[in-house]
Design goal:
- By secondary structure, the chain is α/β, with parallel strands linked by helices.
- It has three domains: 207 residues, no CATH class; 214 residues, P-loop containing nucleotide triphosphate hydrolases (Rossmann fold); 33 residues.
- The protein has 16 helices and seven strands.
- Strands 2-3-4-1-5-6-7 form a seven-stranded mixed beta sheet, sandwiched between helices.
- β6, α13 and β7 form a beta-alpha-beta unit.
- It starts with a helix and ends with a helix.
């Protein structure tokens, strides 16, 4: 459909409406039912009032996609604040700027410099540290998103050309000149009614149309700045080195949102010591630990993509019960008492060799999540902390960390040292995201009174002393390690009397899956950039050699 065909369709579709308006106005005039006029004027006044209120501020427009990804670091968020501030500087952008390529070029360079200063404050040119494929990937992703938004939200955008925008602006200018000439001629023949109509048009309708047009222009311009700034952040952070296709693949594997599986136990706390309420028909909650925050939804698998597996590293001092925890966790899963599928053990070729020599166990939940449970070497026996360094080398590759400590351990000196090293390691690497950490307190069945097991559901009951001891133990562990008590999970691993896995460990782990996927996404992006750098170089040379060889074969095959 060309431009004139589009105009013809619009005219034919609006002609019946115009004819009906004319016939209706003639009928009201002939029948002298003036109250219809007042009703229509009242509706017009209400519509104008609402339009004036809703277009009074640009911020009332639906600014698209201001969501900050969960995997972004603090450095990325500072850069995003700069992008948002840049968008606010152009609230009064002119219509003429939208039709000039120089405006977008200048704006893109300014935004590139400001974002680059966050990551490379000593570099004058924002492109000095970038490669050509990285820049092309950024442009590809930004233009792809903009094209999708414009096709979706701007009517007839696939039919209107850039030249049409310029002609529309000129037509609007000629319309204003013709309208002024009309008012001048009308004032000569009919001064008073013309003056009344002029005041209504200039004082009421013209400001409204002008405000609507300004807000629409600002909306489109803000969308451009936000999309470009979003991928400039991904560019300067080094996450686009893998290319646009691989970048999209990794995001599809780690960025998903859905609700929690039904029937999942939600632990809650009553700090006064009263019994907690039940959150599902078959599961009782307790006041041992506070409720886990639900500020972020967990990822869920979709039919078009499969979520990447997550590595859950279980670390802790020797004798804390790491192996027993993994075994009990997987055995509980095999009994179908948890929201998981049957557990299998990985084959040797599936295991990542850098993590640990022992075979990890893997659990697949009903939401499609695959958790690989890896036990890190124990620490706490070497006075020079060499075993602590060995254990932390495994934790550095984790997506979710479970620090296991015994409830009967008094000092927790090694756990405190491990936490300090954990924080220092990721503080020195601002481009990575710290894996979520849960502290699992084992051997709670050995707390007094030992004969009371499993613990009663209610601390106020006559047999509720064990639950009181567990609650006090978790609070003491949180105080010793300097963490929030919501991250401390008590479990009892006594054979045939397991307690805490279903009630507390699984809910806490499932609620950390979004953060774990964010950690995995960043780690995998940067790992592939480092490991595939020389491999990609070899592939490029191999491709050039193949082309040269094919050309030589063609030359040699020609008859002399």
């Amino acid at each position: 459909m060309n431009r004139w065909q589009l105009y013809g369709v619009i005219l034919l579709m609006t002609a019946p409406l115009i004819i009906l308006i004319g016939l209706g106005a003639y009928y009201i005039w002939v029948s002298r039912q003036w109250w219809i006029w007042w009703l229509l004027l009242a509706l017009l006044a209400i519509g104008y009032l609402l339009a004036w209120l809703w277009t009074r501020k640009v911020s009332r427009l639906p600014v698209l996609d201001t969501h900050v990804p969960l995997y972004w670091t603090d450095q990325d968020r500072r850069a995003w604040d700069i992008v948002q501030a840049k968008a606010q500087q152009y609230e009064n952008v002119r219509w003429e700027d939208l039709s000039t390529a120089e405006h977008y070029t200048t704006l893109g360079l300014e935004l590139s410099r400001e974002v680059a200063r966050v990551y490379h404050p000593d570099i004058d040119d924002p492109f000095d540290s970038l490669t050509i494929p990285e820049v092309l990937t950024c442009l590809e992703l930004a233009t792809s998103d903009l094209q999708e938004w414009v096709q979706k939200y701007v009517p007839a955008s696939h039919l209107i050309r850039i030249g049409d925008l310029r002609r529309a602006r000129r037509a609007w200018e000629w319309y204003q000149l013709g309208l002024n000439a009309y008012w001048l001629l009308a004032a000569v023949f009919d001064p008073l009614p013309t003056a009344a109509r002029y005041m209504v048009g200039r004082g009421v309708l013209s400001p409204l149309f002008h405000r609507v047009r300004e807000n629409l222009i600002s909306w489109l311009h803000t969308l451009f700045i936000q999309r470009l700034g979003y991928y400039l952040i991904e560019l300067q952070s080094g996450r686009l080195k893998v290319g646009s296709q691989r970048y999209r693949e990794l995001r599809s594997q780690h960025v998903r949102t859905d609700s929690l599986p039904q029937g999942l136990p939600t632990p809650s706390v009553d700090r006064s010591g009263d019994a907690a309420e039940k959150t599902s028909p078959n599961i009782k909650t307790s006041s041992v630990i506070p409720e886990v925050s639900m500020s972020h939804e967990i990822p869920a698998a979709t039919p078009d993509s499969v979520l990447a597996p997550l590595t859950v590293v279980i670390t802790g001092p020797r004798g804390a019960g790491k192996t027993r925890l993994i075994t009990t966790w997987t055995e509980e899963s095999e009994q179908n008492t948890l929201p998981v599928r049957p557990v299998r053990q990985l084959h040797q070729e599936e295991v990542e060799p850098n993590l640990n020599d022992s075979l990890p166990r893997t659990i697949t939940t009903e939401t499609g999540e695959t958790l690989q449970l890896v036990e890190a070497p124990g620490f706490g026996t070497d006075p020079h902390a060499a075993d602590l360094q060995e254990a932390f080398a495994t934790v550095a590759r984790a997506d979710l960390v479970l620090l296991v400590t015994s409830a009967v351990s008094p000092g927790r000196h090694w756990e405190v040292q491990w936490l300090q090293k954990y924080q220092e390691f990721f503080a020195s690497r601002p481009h990575l995201r710290r894996p979520p950490l849960l502290v699992v307190v084992t051997h709670v069945d050995l707390l007094p009174p030992r004969s009371e097991w499993p613990p009663a559901d209610d601390e106020s009951a006559s047999l509720g002393k064990k639950r009181t001891s567990i609650r006090e133990c978790t609070e003491y562990v949180a105080e010793q390690l300097g963490i929030d008590v919501t991250a401390v999970i008590p479990v009892g691993l006594r054979p045939e009397q397991v307690w805490g896995i279903r009630e507390y460990l699984w809910p806490a782990v499932l609620r950390q899956l979004t953060a774990a996927h964010s950690t995995a996404l960043l780690r995998q992006l940067y790992t592939e950039v480092d490991t595939e750098r020389w491999q990609k170089l070899g592939q490029q040379f191999q491709h050039l050699l193949d082309i040269a060889w094919n050309q030589l074969r063609k030359l040699w095959s020609k008859p002399s």
